[in-house]
Please model this.
Amino acid sequence: MQDRPPLVLVTADVKELDTYRWHATVSTYINAVAVGAGAIPLILPSLGEDIDVDAVLDRVDGVLVTGSRSNVHPSNYAVEENDDFAPFDRERDMTTLPLIAQAVERAVPLFVICRGFQELNVAFGGTLATEIQRQPGRLDHRAPQSDDHDVRFALAHDVALKEDGVIAGIVGSPTIRVNSLHRQAVDRLADMLVLEGTAPDGTIEAVRVRDAKGFAIGVQWHPEYWVTSDEPSKRLFKAFGDAVRERQRLTQGGIAGSQAAE
Ligand SMILES: N[C@@H](CCC(=O)NCCCC(=O)O)C(=O)O
Model:
């Protein structure tokens, strides 16, 4: 049996650039999988129904669903579209929503970030609120205006984690400071998800999948950005990497992984 490094699928956005359409992923997610989780990142193109998600999940040990400036199309949670919900990436929606559901079903370790966090909620029947900074009593969760990503991704507010929660256990603290780059948020939390952390204004910031057979957590912030310097971010990716390695061990590493027992 041949050993192989663990493989983690990383989702892609569909972008128009240089007169071409690209299926692309921001490098901070790729680096965080490689360095923080110790796995090989594989970018999954957003091909919707043209990709057999089940067949892909046979061959990988984990799934990272990334953040993105686009929003999940509101038709996915039965809300009518208007300008407040744009921009969209329907090809990504058609890929990530089934991918998330299948990864959970098959106990493939799943870590979802920001847009990915919102997709997790929608994939299991929850809803999203848009332009939350306009709601009375709500913090402005958008990034500071700057061209410098270190400024945009600077730690911005606290998150109170649930005592005895999975995420509090991973980061080893009941409160952490996180960055914030979003204008949508979970509105109705899906029944399948368990609240793990909130911002000071009550915004849902961290969840886990209820009764998940494997690692399945999500955060509204961006631990990938500071994965080498911020201890909680480091711990989250390390825990994901450990789950990925355990999945590989259980389903048997090596090329024969495709014959893995569930
Ligand atoms: N639909 C979302 C997007 C949240 C998200 O993933 N943000 C990452 C943006 C990175 C950047 O601005 O550079 C929303 O709620 O806005």
User: Anything to note?
Assistant: The radius of gyration is 17 Å.
